[in-house]
Amino acid sequence: MPSRLPAVPQPVTSEPSPGARHDTTALLRGATASTYADTVRAVADDVAARLVSVTQPFSGASRTELQGLVDAVDLDGPPSGTREALREAADLYAQHAIWFHEPTYTAHLNCPVALPAVGAETMLAAINTSVDTYDQSTVATLMERRLVEWTAGRIGFAVTGDAGTDVGADTRSGADGVFTSGGTQSNFQALFLAREKARRAGVALESMRILATAAGHFSIAKSALLLGLPDDAVVAVGADADGRMCPDALGNALVDTERTGDTVIAVVATAGTTDRGCIDPLGPIADLCDAVGTWLHVDAAYGCGLLVSTTRRHLLDGIERARSVTVDFHKSFFQPVSSSALIVRERRDLAPVAWHADYLNPREEAGEPTPDINQVDKSLQTTRRFDALKLWVTLRALGADGVGAMVDAVCDLAAAVHHDLASDPDLRVVGTTDLSTVLFRYQPAGLDAERADALVPQVRRVLFDSGRALVAKTVIDGRPCLKLTLLNPDATLADVRGVLELVRSAAHGLLAGEALADTDGPPCRDVHPRLARTEGDAR
């Protein structure tokens, strides 16, 4: 749809300063406040109109078409003004964006976003707080610290005193943490902390090892590389048929690593694997880590929504025994990207992150405004958005139980889809889930495995090119599969059945096309499974 953005009146401003050569109406300030309000309102109206009119998650435009539209924009051309620039952006970006709120979007770990969080996003973007130091953020820092404490409490960590206390003060106990850009950064920081703990104990980099299953997130191996660990630093631990870590296999891996003279600096358990949505047995894993004194990190980027579930919280039992936990609020708390956090059981574990600069966060000096609460001391980032505001407003608006009910809704939907597919003649379920994923293949009786393998990317491409539905693909036990990641609590079983029918139709069409291509004579009407031979047809 064409942009509905109306004209935005130009602000009335005071005289520019002598010698000013820039557009004094360009920046958000008191003199442009009314224009700001009109501009945001116009953008919101345009997006709202698109939300009402959109009928599929993607326009279906080809990459060639989209590249042509992007290349046609002259970024060095004359300025068009705010109104025209936003209209152009709406027709380019919004028109061809992927809409995660559409119930036929079932591909990746992208969720529709909570309305209160979107309102908070508008507020924090305009004010543009950076929560790296207290003198840039004041109450924003305190609000983020409160949310860190809240999350730690939900995990089951002990929270004592002010989480803003100097991370270098080893006499302080209790949980702490920091908001991050996403699960990858949270995992990286957790493994950095584990590496530093081992390094300071005298362990050489070349002998450091990390234990995780093959189903663990790719960021674990990537983090090991970035941390300077050897190529074989990440050791795969055996898992059961659904990809959950086997405690016996972990025990053997811990013993084997010690026998080789290497040191396990961390065990990474996953609470919600990306492909299957399965949760490792956290309690038994924690038993083994405690027995040998090894850092346990739980990657709960996907499964963290269970922290507020009223029916499935028990699936995370044992998470409170971890040394560190990754949570991604922009997955299962329905927050706009980005909103993640790393939570540690002991705040002193964050000490290796601290780095002091005279111009930013000098060490405590007389007269400095509360240097013990500068969050740059515990973050890998310096400038950092106040993304915590979105979660704060969501919790105040909907309540933790309200968010938990939405988490339960997507898990219930996945369970219903699994039940549906158990008796489907064409679609074969692959494995189970603890959360909201569905893995399956199109493989009716008589279709060999190799041909079913080849159909997986073809079906996905057909659906993507149409724009009508988006599904993901992955590989399980050497076989490609289609994957539904259900993170829309408003989607219904009928919606998902519609997606599966599109999958079925696409597969039928692809097979029919192959049959036509293989026919020596003219096309026959009974080649397509939905076109029966007509009476008296001589062909």
SSE order: HHHHHHEHEHEHEHEEHEHHEEHEEH
For the biggest sheet, the summary is: 7 strands, mixed
With helices defined by DSSP (H or I, 4 residues minimum), what is the helix count? 15
Helix content: 25-40%
**Overall shape:** globular
Radius of gyration: 27 Å
Terminus-to-terminus distance: 46 Å
Given helix and strand content, the structural type is alpha/beta
- What is the arithmetic mean of pLDDT? 91
- List low-confidence stretches: 163-171, 524-539
Strand order of the largest sheet: 1-7-6-5-4-2-3
Question: What proportion of the residues form beta strands (DSSP E)?
Answer: 5-15%
Number of strands: 11
Organism: Promicromonospora vindobonensis
Region (Disordered): 1-23, 518-539
Keywords: Decarboxylase, Lyase, Pyridoxal phosphate
Protein name: Pyridoxal phosphate-dependent decarboxylase family protein
Key terms:
single chain, 539 residues, alpha/beta, seven-stranded mixed beta sheet, Pyridoxal phosphate-dependent decarboxylase family protein, PyrdxlP-dep_Trfase_small
Structure, explained:
- Belongs to the group II decarboxylase family.
- Pfam families: Pyridoxal_deC (PF00282).
- This protein has 539 residues and is α/β, with parallel strands linked by helices.
- 39% of the residues lie in helices and 11% in strands.
- It contains 15 helices and eleven strands.
- The protein has a seven-stranded mixed sheet with strand order 1-7-6-5-4-2-3, with helices on both faces. A four-stranded antiparallel sheet has the order 8-9-11-10.
- A hairpin with a 7-residue loop joins strand 8 and strand 9 (437-442).
- Helix 1 (33-53) runs parallel beside helix 3 (81-96) and helix 4 runs antiparallel to helix 12.
- The radius of gyration is 27 Å and the shape is globular.
- 38% of the residues are buried.
- The model is unreliable at 163-171 and 524-539 (pLDDT under 50).
